[in-house]
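Sharing in case it's useful to others searching the archive later.

Someone asked me privately for the predicted structure of Ribose import ATP-binding protein RbsA, so I'm posting the question and my answer publicly. Question first, with the sequence:
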Amino acid sequence: MKLELRGITKRFGSLVANDHIDLTVEPGEIHALLGENGAGKSTLMNVLYGLYQADEGDILLDDEVQHFRGPGDAMAAGIGMVHQHFMLIPVFTVAENVMLGHEETKGPGALDLAKAREHVRAVAARFGFQIDPDALVGDLPVGVQQRVEIIKALSRDAKVLVFDEPTAVLTPQETDELMTIMRQLRDEGTAIVFITHKLREVREVADRITVIRLGKVVGEAEPTATNAELASLMVGRAVELTVKKDAPKLGEGGLQVRDVRVLTPDGTIVVDDVSFDVLPGEVLAIAGVQGNGQTELVEAVVGIAARVEGSIRLGDVELVGRSVRAILDEGVGFVPEDRTEDGLVGGFSVAENLILDRSDDPQFVRAGTLRRDALTEFARDRIAEFDIRTQGPDTAAGTLSGGNQQKVVIARELSRELRLLVAAQPTRGVDVGSIEFIHKRIIETRDAGIPVVVVSTELDEVTALADRIAVMYRGSIVGIVPGDTSRETLGLMMAGAADPEVAA
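And my answer, the predicted structure tokens:
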């Protein structure tokens, strides 16, 4: 099925999110839609999917103009969408999620779950997925949840499939698997729109590339274009794709982690006997496939983990046993891996989110009363400094694009005096221009003599930022190696193979 968008325009008040956008996607083609966070990519696809109504323009399928009143109309016309933030109900099973919205019955009020299970198995077998139709979605890893989204879209016979930032929460291995699935769908004749800002993925899988900037199409490119050329089109300027840093100037003290174990409430050991130091003035990156204890280790450092054994010291201060509030007050900055769940309050304004961990600061609160003028001035300064694309300090943080939400979190944590920065997946779901900015700020923090811990599943990010790299596998550190260690060696270590020649 051929998809064509003609002159699509979508406004939100005075903001023109899409400005007369034209786009054509042929059957059997992967068409990448590339752009910065907030460029209007997701808005355009939400118009296509019927979630938004265009103010101007037409949607055509096989040269016929469509009029979608909602997602149901779009799905009935053969359009499927795999959303950046999964549209799944955690307490429902895989089969229940797949049949949701087009339930079939086998009698009055009785759902035909057996048929839904069989449908899940059929689609899963087609792509080699290993998915239990009766598994609760909330118990599944992120990569498997995405496969459920794909099954859900294909179960409705989608001829046009939209992937909206599909790799934002995936490991490198899961990303490779998704690319294989996309190629298979393309070869079967599906028209695919691939929304992303990751240049490597675009060049690997796209047949054609359209670049959007500030709501407008600014150019088309071939997959043979260089990363620098694509980045320049996206951002409108030359982008530095490598991290510039001098040799670290190390201090004394910093963070000392000794013999740390983290246990779940039922006693399962998820971090086992981990020890390392991070000196003032260096970046220690913690690498590994997601799910190998990195999340729980970070939670132990910042006081979130319920059961922690061992010692975590910042200078002369023992952090184990302290509350999160007390640890933050010691000067620990924390960028959580899931900004929507742990980093922001979506219904709060940008300004309010910028002081979530400073709500008792006299600069903003006196005698229990919020100093609105001071907060607004502070927020405007941070919005300008961190290039947060928002209509103003009073805009709800939950309405911002993912990358701009991340900038709010980064701005909050780097706008107070720090003795330690812990950044988990600091650029997850963030475009190249923002990545450049965030990496620069992390290195500036390191150069200010502050120890920095970065947790990332992106090997390019790990090797770009790290002075040393600790690789985790099944809850333990298999080795600590120099920051210039090859991707091949790191990949082997991430699979559990510690090399005694390099592992310190």
